[in-house]
Write a structure and sequence with these properties.
alpha/beta, 5-stranded parallel β-sheet, 7 strands
Length: 264
C-alpha cells in the first residue's frame, strides 16, 4: 500500500494492481495461481478505497468457471475497480513473462469474456481480455484470439509477451480497440518509450514491476549493509526522509485529528 500511495501522488491517469506484485508483497509467494479470489478482491477494495486515480485490477483467469467469472467481475466492480483484466491461461495460471504457461481453448475464453461483460452493472466498468497464446502457440494464434475476444465484447485487448518491436507493431495494426503494453524490465518484451508505444498503436502501458524491482534492490543493499556493518551508518543507498514517509502515510491528518479532539 506504500507503493500505491506513492504512485497515486504522481498524478498518473490510472493505477494497475499487478497480480505478480500483489501476490509477492501481500503473500510473499510466486504468481502461480496460489492467490485466491478472496485474497485479491480484498486487495482491490483496499487499493481502490485509497486511490484517487482509477484502478485497473488483475483478475487472473476469473478464479474458476463461468459462474466464478461472473462473481469475480461483480466483486471487483463492487470493490471499486475501474477495470478488470482476465486472461486465457489454464489454471493454475503463471506470470506472463515466466515459462510453462498453457492456454485454454479459445472458445472457452470467448464464453468467459461474454459472461464478464454481462455480469458488470456499470457501463464504464471495463473488461480487458488478455491472451497468453504468443509464447506457446505463436503470434498468429494470439492475434486470432484477440480478434475473437474483441468480438465477445472486450473493451481493451492485451496480447501478452510479444518478443520484438516488430511483433508489437503487428499487434498494433491488428485491431481498432485500445491495446495494453506490458513493460516488464528483464521480461520477454522490449521496453519501449511512450512515444514509440503510441506510434505503433498502444493506448495503455503498464509497468507492473518497475517500482518493485527498484525497491527490492534498494532493500537488498540496505540489509546487506546492516548485516555487514551492524548499523545503517554509512549506508550509500538513498533513503526517503522519515518526515516525507510520515506525510505520505497520512500521519499529518492523524496529528491534526488529535489536536482537534484533545481534552481541554
Amino acid at each position: 500500500m506504500v507503493s500505491l500511495r506513492l504512485a497515486d501522488s504522481f498524478g498518473f491517469d490510472a493505477l494497475y494492481m499487478t497480480g505478480f506484485g500483489t501476490v509477492a508483497s501481500h503473500l510473499g509467494l510466486p504468481d502461480a495461481g496460489i492467490a485466491t479470489y478472496t485474497d485479491m478482491v480484498q486487495r482491490v477494495r483496499a487499493m481502490a478505497s485509497m486511490a484517487r486515480a482509477p484502478l485497473i485490477a488483475d483478475g487472473d483467469t476469473g478464479y474458476g468457471g463461468l459462474l466464478n467469472v461472473a462473481h469475480t467481475v461483480r466483486g471487483y466492480e463492487a470493490a471499486g475497480a475501474a477495470a478488470i483484466q482476465l486472461e486465457d491461461q489454464e489454471f493454475p495460471k503463471k506470470c506472463g513473462h515466466t515459462p510453462g504457461r498453457r492456454v485454454v481453448p479459445m472458445a472457452d475464453m470467448v464464453r468467459k469474456i461474454k459472461v464478464a461483460c454481462e455480469a458488470r452493472t456499470r457501463s464504464d466498468f471495463l473488461v480487458i481480455a488478455r491472451t497468453d497464446a504468443r509464447t506457446t502457440l505463436g503470434l498468429d494464434e494470439a492475434l486470432r484470439r484477440a480478434e475473437a475476444y474483441a468480438g465477445a465484447g472486450a473493451d481493451i485487448l492485451f496480447v501478452e509477451s510479444p518478443e520484438s518491436a516488430e511483433e508489437m507493431r503487428a499487434i498494433g495494426r491488428s485491431t481498432h480497440l485500445p491495446l495494453v503494453a506490458n513493460m516488464v524490465e528483464g521480461g520477454r518484451t522490449p521496453v519501449l518509450s511512450q512515444a514509440e508505444l503510441e506510434a505503433i498503436g498502444y493506448r495503455l502501458a503498464i509497468f507492473p514491476v518497475t517500482a518493485l524491482l527498484a525497491a527490492t534492490e534498494a532493500m537488498r543493499a540496505g540489509y546487506a549493509h546492516l548485516r555487514g556493518q551492524g548499523s545503517s551508518a554509512g549506508l550509500a543507498t538513498p533513503l526517503m526522509p522519515f518526515g516525507d514517509l510520515t506525510r505520505l502515510m497520512g500521519f499529518e491528518e492523524v496529528w491534526e485529528f488529535d489536536r482537534r479532539h484533545a481534552e481541554p
